[in-house]
Every structure is written in C-alpha cells, then in structure tokens.
Amino acid sequence: MTALVAPNRSIVESLVRQSLFREIGREQPATPAPTLVVNSSARHMHISPENLELLFGKGAELTVHKWLYQEGQFAAQQTVTLIGPRKRIIPNLRILGPCRNLTQIELAITDSIQLGIDVPLRMSGDIEGTPGGYVMGPKGLLEMKHGIIRAARHVHMSPSDAKFHNVKHLDKITLKVDSKGCRTRFDDLIVRVDSSFKLEVHIDTDEANACDLEHATKVELLKS
Ligand SMILES: [Zn+2]
After folding, report:
1. If you measure from the C-alpha of residue 45 to the centroid of ligand 1, how many angstroms do you get, rounded to a whole number?
2. For residue 3, what are the CA distances in angstroms to 90, 124, 199?
3. What is d(CA 122, CA 151) in angstroms, rounded to the nearest whole number?
4. Other beta carbons within 10 Å of 203
5. 201: CA distance to ligand 1 center in Å?
6. Alpha-carbon span 157 to 168, nearest angstrom
7. Cβ-count burial of 158 within 10 angstroms (0-12 exposed, 13-18 middle, 19+ buried)?
8. How far is the CA of 190 from the centre of ligand 1 (A)?
9. What distance in angstroms lies between residue 57's CA and the mean position of ligand 1's atoms?
10. What tens digit of pLDDT does each residue of 181-214 get?
11. Domain 153-223, what architecture?
C-alpha cells in the first residue's frame, strides 16, 4: 500500500489548498464531515471469561471469525444456543470478542418474538432488571439470571468527531438514511465518545431492514 510510505494524497491536497488560500488571503472552507460508517449488529452475545469456560470448557478462549470495524473487536468462531421459555430457541448465536466483565445478549425485536420474550431497550451494559434465559454451549449450560436486551441505537465517535458534530458523550443525535426511493430518520441515537472509537453507527437488523441500509445511497448525522 503506497499510503504507508508516501504522504497520504488527501493530506498533500489539503496542505496545497491551505497554502493557496493563505496566498490569496481567503479563509479556508469548512472542514468536510468525517466519513460516516453505518453498520447493523446482528443478534449476538458478549461473555465473561468465567461464563466462556462454563460453556466451552476450562481454558477456553475466543478465536476470530471476522474482525469488526472498531479496533480490536471481532465476531468469534464460537456460537451458542439461546433457550427461551416454552423451549423456543435461537441457534447459532454468535459471540463477540474480546471477553467482557459482563455477560449480555443483544437481540432485535424480531429475535425476541421468535424467542417468546419481551426485551427491554437498554444501553449496552445496563442489564439490571432485564430478562434472562438459558445458554447452551458444547461443554455446559449457563443460566443467565438477566442480561438479554435490545441495544439502544448508538454512534461511536472519537473526541474530534464529537467536536465536529457539536455533541458530547451520551447526547442524542439523528441518523438519516437515503435508500432506493425512501428516506428514513432514526432519532435518539446515543452518542458514545471514546478516543479509541472510529466513527460508526450501530443499528440492529430490524432497523437496518426498515431503512433498507443494504441499498443506502447516503447516510448522514443531524443534530436532534
Ligand atoms: Zn456499538
């Protein structure tokens, strides 16, 4: 990749532009919006190291199936079966890595209907008072007392992206998606700011289908 050895072309262009504007004594035009990535999160599980060992055996570790957009995050090769009331199940529920302190399952509304439970809308990590279920792995059965949620739609941002959009951590913002012949707005997107984050919106599969994200021609963040 040339970008690794030569200066990035857009940086060079921006330097040339800056010096041109200096010479002709004009203000630089407004910075362009940072590139926005919108991804849908399919149903998945986050797991603690203890629960991973319970389900996959002593010394078990997550292995990478596919790297995700956020640095260090991955879909693991390991999957489990989620068992709801009245023996309804969701098979092949994928675990996301790395391990966390907290075991949590994130479902879309369609998944919760399949499972036969009501799933409350929560921020990731806020699982008090949420329903639980049984999780079956190759080496054991885990009883989750609670931890099944529908994850609130959110956007990951670095501090500089947050500054550009004039928002702060836990503010709400709106996502606009233009797709084939229809435009959809998602309000109440929760802003999550961290210096390790890349600019990325996470919506669930129901939301992605509702706006036909697959065929989106333009995505945009608007101040709520
Ligand atoms: Zn996210």
Report:
1. 13
2. 44, 36, 21
3. 5
4. 25
5. 7
6. 9
7. middle
8. 10
9. 28
10. 899 999 999 999 999 999 999 999 999 999 999 9
11. Beta Barrel (2.40)
CA of 202 to the centre of ligand 1 (A): 5
Specify whether the CB–CB gap between 132 and 144 falls below 8 A: yes
Cis peptide before 7 (omega within 30 of 0): no
Distance 19 CA to ligand 1 centre (A): 39
Span from the CA of 78 to the centroid of ligand 1 (angstroms): 20
Domain with CATH 2.40.40.20 in the chain: 153-223
For ligand 1, the distance from its centroid to the CA atom of residue 41, given in whole angstroms, is 8
Q: What is the whole-number distance in angstroms between the Cα of residue 12 and the centre of ligand 1?
A: 33
Instruction: State residue 12's pLDDT score.
Output: 54
What distance in angstroms lies between residue 2's CA and the mean position of ligand 1's atoms? 31
Single pTM value for the model? 0.84
Between the CA of 119 and the centroid of ligand 1 the distance, in Å, is 18
Q: What is the DSSP string of 57-85?
A: -TT----EEEE-SSTT-EEEEEEEEEE-G
Q: Which residue has the tokens 């707005």?
A: 185
**Token pair recorded at residue 202:** 């996470």
Residue located via tokens 């606009």:
176
Q: How confident is the model at residue 218 (pLDDT cuts 50, 70, 90)?
A: very high
- Asked if 152 and 201 touch (Cβ cutoff 8 Å), the reply is no
Measure 105 CA to ligand 1 centroid, in angstroms.
13
